[in-house]
User: What shape does this take?
Amino acid sequence: MTGADRRSAIVEQIRNSSAPVSGRALAVAFDVSRQVIVQDIALIRAAGYDIISTNRGYIINEPRSVSRVFKVRHTDAQLEEELNSIVDLGGNVRDVMVNHRIYGRLTAALNITSRRKVSQFITDIENGKSSPLKNITSDYHYHTVEADSEETLDMIENMLMDKGFLVESGKTAD
Assistant: This one.
């Protein structure tokens, strides 16, 4: 294993751990000295990872988020209501995607995280010479929605269902 491979594996081990990972545990796992681990952590930090040393071991400081894809359908008049409802519950509408029978999958980044951004998006649509992507597929489209937890995504899914927008969820059964 090269040093770069080891550092990638260290990041993944710290990222996937529910508790701090000690330098000793990392040294044993990668069959190197603790000093090598300390040097690797310094290089990992220099690469831009926010690794924090605690008295119990290393943790990585990065925002935790989950995402789910929802297949939805609504009219142009309901577009603002759909987006506001998602962001009001804490969702980030990362993108919109349609499956066109001729052109295939078409995706556009949105990154709508607030009512202000919803308002900007609606204004851009209304003032532009374009229409929403969903209009080329009889209003059927998909949104990748990101949130802080599965519970938040469940609330968003339930809201979309209650409003009649949800066609199908990207949630997988265990």
Remarks:
- Residues 3-16 form the longest helix (14 residues).
